Amino acid sequence: MANDAVNRDRALAEIARRVPAQRVLTSPAALSAYASDALTAFRTVPEAVIVVESTDEVTRVVRTCAEHGVPFVARGSGTSLSGGSLPVAGGIVIALNRMNRILRIDAEERVAVCEPGVINADISRAAAAHGLYYAPDPSSQPVCTIGGNVAFNSGGAHCLKYGMTSNHVLGLTVVLPDGAVARLGGESLDGVGPDLTGFFVGSEGLFGIAVEVVVRLLPRPESVRTVLAAYDSLAAAGDAVARVVASGLLPAAMEIMDALAIEAAEAAAHPGYPAGASAVLIVELDGEAGHVDAEFRRLLALLGDSGARSVRPAADEAERARIWKGRKSAFSAVGRLSPDYIVQDGVVPRSRLGAALAEIDLLSQAYGIRVANVFHAGDGNLHPLILYDGREGGALERAERLAGEILELCIRMGGSVTGEHGVGVEKLAYLPRMFSSDDMSLMRAVRDAVDPAGLANPGKMLSPT
Predict the structure, then answer these.
(1) What is the pLDDT of residue 41?
(2) Which of 92, 126, 193, 384 holds its CA 20 to 30 A away from the CA of 341?
(3) Which residues are bridge partners to 341 per DSSP?
(4) CATH of the domain at 287
(5) 179: alpha, beta or left, given left = phi > 0 and alpha = psi -120 to 50?
(6) Is the pLDDT of residue 212 over 60?
(7) Could you tell me the CATH number of the domain that includes residue 74?
(8) What is the pLDDT of residue 2?
């Protein structure tokens, strides 16, 4: 431990010579702001936070950490819901927020080159002048960064049609755990050789830090049509999703919210969801105008026959925006219903969605803990929000046990313990229940090959052997 402290002090002294003093944070007040991310149940105060502004600074800091054996964690906006950017005891945080420039937009090639601290929504804002946009749209897109999206392979409401971050990142410049700089992929959809870009996306910081990201841009759809359907039960809303999928339609998005989530969204964002509904289903189609109009007529007929208590197409862009504001505010809005909550992120096959929701309801009753359900219905990605009051003795532990049972349920039904939030520290115990020991050994061997010293975001995704 003494040697660790000496090495850490030497590393910080060397970093302080390379990075301006005002961007080397060591005061208790400054460090406190970085002690947790959006998973606030976990908290670790780092030794220092280094606010970097360039690839050269990231390289120097990482190289210094490697030379002195100091662990490091990269952080953007800190919106990780799995503790993926939680600091490491005795380590430093490399804050990337000031690396927030869109370096280039090539409208002809339909690509944008971004630094890791660029806010997700800012890419689409910058591309709008060219009639283009960036498709992945996590609920936190007004604040989350593209570097974090890359680390956790973020999705969003429209991933049903457009896929995850990995489907939209063409190339990366990365600083590896030893401080070396590597370029992966390029600016073309057609890569040559192994897909090293895909290998890096979703690695949760274990393979280093992305310092430049090449993303593909898509033309803005000619037409977008959105409809809100209300149901008297979650099961009926789930059956409606099955009807839409079976019909051959491919919506851009299909989202369901239950009564508790509706209550929270109404209190926070006032989207005008139907009063008294047990569930609402949001379905959105986009594409060429004539094609969308024809599909929208089919969609309205399907929803009309699905037992919906009401089916309301968005009359204009303003109403569409209100519908989506309610959905995308749901995570933060439940704070109006409970002082604390856990956001889970499991996946079940679409065919098991109804059964999964029924079991979650039974678990909620058994634990006496309210659960608000918000989910990407089209791909079975569940986001149960488990509400508790941390001021009550044992409340967090009970909520965590319930969250664990939901993850076990997802595994049992042939799904996954995470759809887009990552493993982080929250799900360390559950990955080995989803994968065999041979699979886990292979993952660790790959991590060790890239980072033999285990300095890059240690303690995340892969638990110690």
Answers:
(1) 85
(2) 92
(3) 387
(4) 3.30.70.2190
(5) left
(6) yes
(7) 3.30.43.10
(8) 58
